[in-house]
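Fill-in record for UDP-4-amino-4-deoxy-L-arabinose-oxoglutarate aminotransferase.
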Amino acid sequence: MTLAQGKPGKLFLLEVLMADLKQEFNPYLSVVIPVFNEEENLAELHARLTLTLDKAGYDWEVIYVDDGSRDDSWNILESFHKKSHRVHLVRFNRNYGQHMAVFAGFERVRGQVVATLDADLQNPPEDVPKLVAKLEEGYDVVGGWRENRRDSWLRKLPSYLVNRITSRVVGVDLKDYGCMLRAYRREVVEAMNRCEETSSFIPALANTFAKEVTEIPVGHAERQSGSSKYRLVDLLRLNFDLMTGFSVLPIQMVSILGGLVALAGVFFGLFLFIRRLVVGPEVEGVFTLFAILFVFVGVQILCVGLIGEYVGRIYREVRSRPRYVVAETRD
């Protein structure tokens, strides 16, 4: 059948024109937003973000990645896509985690500058142009620093420890590695896309490829709707990923610690031998010996667990399984 299966000529030409516009559209900024059960926040997030980006004056696109949401998030995202060719969607078949969702968005960006943003509205979308402006000063990566963070100390304390460990491991001292409100040059994103590890921490990974890195203060608000997707166990798992994924320093520290413990054991044994010669047989100190033994056993178990983390990472990598499975997309 001719003319697009019998469609009127003007309508067909309009559809062809719109298709060409989508294909030729090369935005300056791409915004990647992972989404997991955020139906209460999506409408406000999208309205504020689009208004902000339109005021900024550059061409943009936004890529929402539905990380296996079980609420109405996908249907809401589809409504955004139907209204604008700037909105692109990716949907996972199940939940794979925030960083895998961001990687899926990175693989589809077309902008020269790429920004990431959480969907929970704790980081204001109005701060995205600030990150882009700072990046244009010559930086490769600009991170957001939640100067007045609106979280409890139960979340702040683990985050502080993770930030300190990450700064030491990566070699780039930043105040807030946990903030996902960040901007990257396209070259850094492409370098990260070439990495195929199944578990990674994007802010730390980006800094290993960037020459100039900085961070600026950004806003932070209390969560108004929904619940946090990061539990304490997730932060601990993230900490292990950081320690074992970006440095061999922990395993080297285990070797040094093992040598020190062995040396301490030799000196302690020598002390007990001399004491027996001087004082003679005695029963006192049995509980002290047990306490010292428990300390040594605890250190050994910790070291074995750390080695197990490295072995487990190697096991996951050699299987070469896909990091995630995309169920459907909307371009």
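KEY FINDING: The beta strands are 29-35, 60-66, 87-92, 113-116, 141-146, 182-185, 213-218, 326-330.
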